Amino acid sequence: MTESVQVLLEEKMREMEAAVNAERELRQQQEARLKAELTSLERDLQESKEKESLVASLEKCLQEGKERERSLVEEGAKREAQFKELLRSLEAEKDNLEERLTNQLSQLNGSIADYQQEAADNREHLAELQREVERLARERAELEAEAQSESDRAARLEEDMRQAQRESRSRVW
Length: 173
Known about the structure:
The protein has helices spanning 2-47, 52-172. The mean pLDDT is 88. Helix 1 packs antiparallel against helix 2 (52-172). The protein is rod-shaped, with a radius of gyration of 53 Å. Helix content is 97%, strand content 0%. By secondary structure, the chain is mainly alpha-helical. Keywords: Coiled coil.
């Protein structure tokens, strides 16, 4: 965005310079033409007094040309001041946008760092939970083995008890 604004400003500056140069060249051409006419009139004045009014007219045109030149110079200065003010305004806006972008980038970097820390904490917590699950799975396997062992022992005791009852009945008979 800054480069395009800079390019646009440079292009406008070149256009203004070209317009001022063209106007200056036109003014110089007009001034040269007017001076040539004035010289011709001065020669004619020597020949005839009737040409005095023409000289006055040409002097008036020259004065108007000078006034137009002065007006154009004033207009050029005014436009240059406006351009400089616009340039200052655009530079201030650019600085403001850069500062806002920097602030947003800092906030984004802070958020990313927070998310990364949270992810690291979650990975650690997950690892702890996995270790706990593995420990509980071992305990369960041990308890199942112990339960099976107790169940087998209970079945043997029950079988022994039945055997003892059978033997005692057979003795009683």
